[in-house]
Design goal:
Layout lengths: L15 H16 L5 H11 L7 H11 L6 H29 L10 H19 L10 H6 L7 E3 L3 E2 L14
Antiparallel strand pairs: 1-2
Helix pairs in contact: 1-2, 4-5
């Protein structure tokens, strides 16, 4: 069952239906049971949550739309990124509330305190949203020694070969 390899919590999903479905999948995997359309549906029925999960038709749609295991890392990254985005929006809203104070009666906290807290929270969320990527490190000597690529023009000085060129303007502007 691929759900065993996924390090997500149900709360990471946007809709309650998807949280419920993923929770059922986790429960099955934790027990060592197979995770399939039939077992997930049976688990949801047993828990009385099938309707809240969108019913059998929604389960079938989820299976149809997101069932290719080879894309699992991309699906997980997408869920993580969107969960972090929602959490960042919530953190910003909380910062605004803290600056206005309860009922707009005045600041509940200083700008510096709110900014520091928000910066820390957003930095944490950024780490959760994007997996660490190992970027190549070049020394100054390597960068200086690099030879710029020679550009070949289709239209001298204007259109470079093998590059994207955007031409925009009204049709009668020439």
């Amino acid at each position: 069952a691929c759900v065993e390899r996924v390090e997500l919590e149900p709360v990471a999903f946007y809709t309650e239906a998807h949280r419920t479905i993923f929770g059922a999948m986790q429960a099955l995997a934790d027990r060592g049971d197979a995770v399939s359309l039939l077992t997930v549906q049976a688990e949801l029925v047993e828990l009385g949550q099938l309707t809240g999960a969108g019913g059998p038709a929604h389960l079938a749609l989820c299976l149809q739309e997101a069932s290719v295991e080879v894309y699992l890392p991309e699906y997980v990254a997408l869920v993580r990124r969107e969960a972090a985005r929602r959490a960042a929006i919530q953190a910003c809203s909380q910062a605004i509330t803290a600056l206005y104070g309860p009922d707009g009666a005045g600041p509940a906290a200083s700008v510096a305190d709110v900014a520091a807290g928000l910066t820390d929270r957003l930095a944490t969320l950024a780490g959760q949203a994007e997996p660490a990527v190992s970027l190549p490190v070049h020394t100054w000597t390597e960068m200086i020694a690099r030879v710029p690529e020679t550009l070949h023009y289709l239209w001298p000085g204007w259109v470079v070969e093998k590059k994207i060129v955007l031409v925009a303007g009204a049709g009668d502007s020439m």
